[in-house]
Amino acid sequence: MAQASFDNTDLADYKASGALEGKVAIVTGASSGIGQAVAIAYAKEGARVVIGYLDDEEGAEKTLDIIESYGGEARALGGDLGKSENCDALVNFALAEFGALDIVVNNAGFQYPQTSPLDISDEQMLKTFEIKAFAMFYLVRAALPHLKKGSRIINTASINAYRGHSDLIDYSGANGAMVAMTRSLARRLVREEIAVNGIAPGPIWTPLITKTFGDLNPDVASDFGEDVPAGRPGQPYELVKAYVFLADPQNSYMTGQFLHMNGGDYMST
Questions:
Q1: Global pTM?
Q2: Which of 45, 153, 163, 230 has the most C-beta neighbours closer than 10 Å?
Q3: Which residues is 153 bridged to in the sheet?
Q4: % of the chain with per-residue pLDDT over 70
């Protein structure tokens, strides 16, 4: 049975090692769910964090409050990152607030389940790709002139990029584009010693699930994630060590890879 909880206070027990001391990170989609958990973990690891969010100002403020309660530093800026000018603004904001940029986590996303391909409108297709694939590219493009040797780019895709999903055709495609661009950027930037990797989560219990699947499946809170070997969805805090690992400057010989955090639903690549 799914755990109907979105509380990232579980990170109160997170044991930090100072892996990101002195680093500055941008984490998008950080007003809730995975992005919020990553932002909190990065702050506990010593990074100063800029969180990007779309319109959940209350959630963004909560993320800031949690980070500050642990003695961390964070700032927040809202905006639709599917528009390149907002990605430019987020990078400039990070530089103005903290004077540097070392880590970029592209985590923003949304999904619009449809039971038939015929119901996917032009507008939905464009919006899905804007939020996932376009925003990832725009933010990387804006950040690149300011990144240096040892910087890290980390992209949140999805298990659906690898196995597909019958009700998330456009979303699966947008995540597939993210995987391909991640690998291509990794090849381009490896000689500059900028690593580009990603996480491909399986079923993770976040507010996005009820927001997008609630109408399609009123029982989503009771059966989400039960089809994976673990028999349950993951929680955002269960992923954060992977994001820290990919951001750690000591992880210097890994690029172009995706970590599959999916409760045992193993991928072949």
A1: 0.92
A2: 153
A3: 104, 196
A4: 89
Residue type, 212: T
With 0-12 / 13-18 / 19 or more C-beta atoms within 10 angstroms meaning exposed / middle / buried, residue 9 is exposed
Length, in residues, of the chain = 269
Tokens coding 236 = 């955002």
| pLDDT score of 2 more than 70 | no
User: How crowded is residue 130: how many other Cβ atoms within 10 Å of its Cβ?
Assistant: 18
Q: Which amino acid is at 8?
A: N
Tell me the C-alpha distance between 260 and 158, whole Å.
9
Q: How far apart are CA 160 and CA 163, in angstroms?
A: 5
Span 139-177, pLDDT tens digits: 999 999 999 999 999 999 999 999 999 999 999 999 999
**Residue 197 corresponds to which amino acid?**
N
Pick the closest to residue 79 from 46, 110, 56 (CA basis). Answer: 56
- Nearest CA among 78, 80, 81 for reference residue 135: 81
In tens, the pLDDT along 79-137 reads 999 999 999 999 999 999 999 999 999 999 888 999 999 999 999 999 999 999 999 99
The amino acid that residue 27 corresponds to is V
Distance CA 246, CA 255 (A): 9
Quickly name the fold that domain 21-259 has.
Rossmann fold (3.40.50)
Which residue ranges make up each domain of the chain? 21-259
Helices (H), the chain: 33-44, 57-69, 84-98, 122-129, 135-143, 160-163, 169-189, 207-213, 220-223, 240-247
**Catalytic sites, residue numbers:** 171
